[in-house]
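Q: Fold this one first, please.
A: Sequence and structure below.
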Amino acid sequence: MIRQTIVFALVLLSVLAAAEQPPSSAVKAEMAAQQPAIEEHLRVEDAVRFALEHNPSVKSAAYVVDAQRHKVPQAKSLPDPTVSVGWMGNSRPFSVMEGDPSSYRSVSAMQMLPFPGKLRLKGEMASKEVEVAQADYEGVRRRIASEVKAAYYEYFYFDKALETTRRNKDLLVKLSKISEARYRVGKAMQPDVLKSQTEISMLLQRLTMLEQQRETAQARLNMLMGREPESPLPPAADVAPLEVALDLEQLYQLAQRTDPMLARETRMLERNQIAVAMAKKEYRPDLSIGYMYQQRPMMMDMKGFTFTVNVPIFYKSKQREAVRQAQQEVMAAQQSRDSRINELRFEVKQQYLAAKAAKSLLDLYSKAVVPQSSLALESSMSAYQVGSSDFLTMLSNFSTLLNYETEYYRQVADYQIALANIETLIGVDLTNVVIAGEAVKQ
């Protein structure tokens, strides 16, 4: 779109012919081995998919979910039974004293049976903790996807900023040569030549900074994708700004339905509510059943059973306080959930405003500022060639156009980053969904 606004004079000077170099065969081989979809250009969807498959944070969160699942059968299981052996009457192991009826050998086993309902509640608490881990996992996936998109659009911006700056540097070199030629024939002044050379040096400085920033953006994108920071990447594919009509109230509703952090707080609230019921169950005694077999010298063997219950006589300092603790944790979880709702609405509003502002600036640059700057440069170049305008005016128009072209791509990146952050909050891919009017169409 911007190239269509570049004036005919720029085309004649051959500054729009700079082409991006394709990645080397080694880069293509590496990327193809890991992700065949990546070829000459890196697409944002490919980067996100690769990151979700290889990022260590995503893998770690998945392992945590699996680990929590293994806790559920443990929580629902009975305590391990105990088995004991013993003897009485002689210090030698398993020996008895002949003729002493009090001497014996024995073996016993005991099983503790929790009060009915306790194991079920423990299993429900463990299941809720699995759901909490799943919400954390989804949150990590969304965060990584959002960070990858943000890093990708930064990478895209620096690619375009470098391309624009190099193109304009070539133009400035040609303009400098024109001013030198005019100076040699007495149609231009020496300060024009010196000023053009100064501007070329400033553009070289700018290129150096942009190259360093591009390398940093590439390293960050590699890191998020689970690759070495120095790994080569193809250039970013062109980004077409999404045309999405955002309805703030619908964004609020979608966010509250799908936000992983809010889901986590809800699951924690439910888990703590079960913990209250579990704490109240602790008022009820558990039952232990034991069996004993005794072998006595010169007497009949003896068998017996024991039944044991714990008596919660210290309930005032234990069970009652445990119930109060669990109730306070429920209240804390409720407040934490309400706080997350407020934070979520703020984050949605913040990203909504950022996207709206970036889109307005994007339209302004593409439809007015850049075309007008191009016309101003075209006019000053024509006037300079016939001697009716000075070189500094043309150079000023040149610098203005360069800044506005670069700023256009900055706004493209900022707009796409804001949309990516909104996608993280609402759990909806805005490339496939239109949010406007009365419904969300997918």
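Q: Good. Now the second chain.
A: Here it is, same layout.
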Amino acid sequence: MPVDGIFTVYDPNNNPLATRQFTLAPGGQTGSQTCRYSNSSDLNLPRNIAGYAIFTHNGPPGAILPDAYMLNSTATVVVYAKFEGRAVQ
């Protein structure tokens, strides 16, 4: 089944910087679902700022296994980050 989700990026003071809502197709493969960019054509995040991101969705636990790649402006430094699920409170 399709999974609806909301991706929100926050600054260090818990202020939202960008929010995107989208639907992920069922049965997707690694890397084939969606890709978000921090540049002005997508999330339009400010440069040189720290923060964190949260992705919430209506799918069952474990339905989404997200990851991220962070690159510098020349793509000479690539950092992989794996998102971890958080227990429902």
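Q: Anything worth noting on the second one?
A: Residues 3-64 form one domain.
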